[in-house]
Specification:
With 81 residues, this protein is mostly loops. The protein has two helices and three strands, in the order E-E-H-E-H. A hairpin with a 5-residue loop joins strand 1 (22-24) and strand 2 (30-32). The model has no long low-confidence stretch (mean pLDDT 95).
Length: 81
């Protein structure tokens, strides 16, 4: 099951579970669409993989399977700008 991380690992932008701006790689590294397109060139800085839109968990299932509340950021050269 996807963790649904609450923020962009690069710019720390909020990415709530229903956000259409969330992008993930195969390891669930989570970034916003803006960082993926403008800073990362479409490649994950952690694994080199590509990104896809993060699926949106139906609201009625969020109570039983909540999104993560743990924020995660990691310094990346591309994000320092």
């Amino acid at each position: 099951m996807l963790i649904l991380k609450p923020n962009c690992e690069c710019c720390d932008r909020d990415l709530p579970p229903e956000s259409p701006a969330a992008r993930i790689c195969t390891f669930e590294c989570t970034f916003c669409a803006d960082c993926v397109e403008t800073r990362l060139g479409g490649a994950c800085p952690n694994c080199g993989g590509d990104f896809v839109a993060r699926p949106i968990r139906p609201a009625h299932l969020l109570a039983k399977f909540p999104a993560s509340s743990e924020r995660f950021t990691k310094p990346h050269e591309a994000c320092a700008a």
